[in-house]
Amino acid sequence: MYQIGIDIGSTAAKVAVMKKTDILETFVLPTGWSSIDTANNIKKRLSDMGVEESNSKVVATGYGRVSVPFADKTITEITCHAVGAKHFIGENTTVVDIGGQDTKVISLEDGVVKDFTMNDKCSAGTGKFIEVMSNSLGVDIDTLTDLAREGNGIEITSMCTVFAESEVISLIGRGEKRENIAFGIVDSVIKKVNSLCSRHGESEAYFLTGGLSRNPYILDELSKAMGKKVVTHELGRYAGAIGAAILAKKIKK
């Protein structure tokens, strides 16, 4: 019996295929404008792999979890990311998920969620903020962080993404170096994420999930800000989906 975890976020849908504790396959698709269409595309891809409703258990999580009609169960992102992180790093850790729509900080104690905080009132401090600012500079996110490594001295003061974008455009108009603007953009996100983490007190370990977990500069700068090494895994982006797949094992079918 296959265990399928589907984590449909606001920008990307992550899928994990497992048997017991073995991760057999992971893949990601853009969410696009319709989570329902994305779910149907996922179902087709799973079917091409030989995974059908008759030989699988499916848990959906994330922003679009209610849009997966073939899911046997839906579970919150908090629980799924916690279980996924526990699979990678152990029972006592703080999970930091910089997502497209929100940023989540989840404290695990003895493998159980002790506390969590979400930045969901504004896109500042999220992946969407970095995406919008990257577009303002005419670069992709990886290029933005490469530029940021070479920059310094700029602080983006606006808390709102719309006003921050205007601030960036003004800096461009003034002839400020792109490297310095990029530095200010990333630094703004790092400070907001660090502020969320500080509400949880000191942790034994920090584990970064989400799409930005693949970016070395984000890991380095977050580690500096927090004064403790932030780690991830090559499949850290799939932590929510993997947590969902692990939880699918408990479904009776």
Written overview of the protein:
- There is one protein chain.
- With 253 residues, the chain is of the alpha/beta class.
- It is 40% helix and 23% strand.
- It is built from eight helices and ten strands.
- It has helices spanning 35-48, 77-89, 127-137, 141-149, 161-173, 178-198, 216-226, 239-248; strands spanning 2-8, 12-19, 22-30, 56-61, 73-74, 93-98, 103-109, 112-119, 206-209, 230-231.
- It has a five-stranded mixed sheet with strand order 3-2-1-4-5.
- The protein is globular, with a radius of gyration of 19 Å.
- It starts with a strand and ends in a 5-residue tail after the last helix.
What are the secondary-structure elements, in order, as H or E? EEEHEEHEEEHHHHEHEH
Rg over alpha carbons: 19 Å
Tell me the total number of β-strands: 10
How much of the polypeptide forms β-strand, as a percent range?
15-25%
